[in-house]
Amino acid sequence: MKPTSSPLLALALSCTLALVGCATQPMGPTVLVMPAPTKPFEVFQQDQAMCMQYAQSMVGGQAHAANDRAVGSAAVGAVLGGVLGAAVGNHQGAGIGAASGAIVGTGVAGPSTAYSQGMIQYQYNNAYTQCMYARGNQVPGFTR
Fold this sequence. Notes:
- The protein is mainly α.
- It has 4 helices and no strands.
- It is elongated and about 75 Å long.
- Keywords: Signal.
- InterPro entries: Gly-zipper_YMGG.
- This is YMGG-like Gly-zipper domain-containing protein.
């Protein structure tokens, strides 16, 4: 039986860990806001730019934190899998255990990261709509 190559194992673990970090900062709001009936569009655009910046500041750093948690989960899985593989077999068992642990850790972290992404967008949308409403714009579902 051919021993597992160390560079190949390192590449597999790196790719697995890279796939985990998928939460990103929102690119913009996913809610509809309309200008007030008498507000010029240029003023509405200024409101929009300011409120997008405000919303971005309210969720700043959350995507990075979510990705750190996900990568940590995959890394813990790899370490635990490696330890278990080494306890059961030889160095080859440790490599297989580490790769398996990284895959399981990634599987656990993936849904958590997707949930975090949804929550970040939700918080961004809330901050954005609050700002736009406070500046006199029309937010569906709310009346002055």
